[in-house]
Structure prediction request, 450 residues.
Amino acid sequence: MVKPLHPVALFRYGILGPLVNRERLAPGELKSTLAALAAHTYHTPSGQMIRYSAKALERWYYAWCRGGVEALTPQSREDLGRTHIPADIQQRLLQAKQEKPGRSIRTLIRLLEEHRVVARRQLTRSSVYRFLSRQGLSRRTVADAPTIERRSFEAQHAGDIWYGDVMHGITVNTVKGLRKTYLVTWLDDASRLVCHSSFYLDESSSAIEHAFKEALLKRGLPKKLVVDNGAAYRAKSLQTICARLNVRLIYCRPYEPAAKGKLERWHRSVREQFLTELNTITVSTLDELNARLWAWIEEEYHRQVHSGLKDTPLDRYRKDLAVVQPLGELARHLDDYFDHREKRTVRQDGTVSFEGQFYEVPHRLVGQTVYLVVSPYSDRQVKGIESLKYEKLGEARRLDKQANNRRRRQRPQETQPIPEAAKNSLVETLYQNYLDLWDATERSKQEEKV
Prediction:
């Protein structure tokens, strides 16, 4: 019976193809060929994307020269399955772990040290882990804790569930120097389609809401959003947007990334297929990075057959176009849903303050409490004034004191009718009575003279 080749040996043999297929190499050709092979990225049998050094490839080549393709099989450790931990200490480790399965390796070692079973630093974490792993006890579990029942599921239609999350990205050049980027993504559950994904310079609520707005404009209105418990997703602004759009906002349990497994798989694809192949020399700004991301999503990711779907995300999404809820007329007023509103009281000079700046508003609003409508994005532009019932009241302009120095003020008219309330005041009534009495006295004197 012929023994089958190890997958790793066959994989290494394929990499060495330009060398093993040559009968004779010219002087210096081995070194140049190894350098060329080391410049490539290879997809390993385990699914990783990795590069190998010229030194490692040279070892494989000489191993093949000595023993053929069988010599490329990875060698197992000679001490595999053995442990140098004494038998009595092994027994104490097993006993301590079985008493409380939730104990970590660090806790087990400290426990034995405190009981003077072992000397300090006698046991290493790696040796204890290997020992417990062979006993099937390496996992840190709590026996009495309730176990969450996990089941694989999928939404029935595209647009039923969207997932939102953030992944840490690479650094890019900005006017403020090198800055770290964050990939914000909204992913459809049923089709695995990327509704929108973009790199930002922070993971704030403004970045998440901007990506959500772009996703709405591209893919319509979802029924549910599933997000984690980060502060940006807990922002009142996002909760308000979802409430006004009638979209259910669902928060995952803390520290349970498995709840968004499809999105975690998307992040893995970005790292292995996009970031690994990205030529960072040609990408120096955020716009250049996003342009390449969008091209990769539309031309590669959306057109790859997904193993869980047996279809491409784009084709799977198109099958549900009839049930996807479009924005329709809502798209014309979408900015109003995403604008932030800051409550302010108008000062006596007709101004309100925002982030250290003063803005002039219609003078008739003096003393009233209003909403300052602000763009949620990086420019934080003030767009206008609304009442507490969200009625538009006018514009808000940056205060220019020098221009106001030359501006004519509106003043009340010289002759104004006396208000009815002023006529009925106590002083006015007494004064009117006095005039009436004076007139009566004068008329009496005139009558006596006659």
The longest helix spans residues 426-449. The chain has 16 helices and 14 strands.
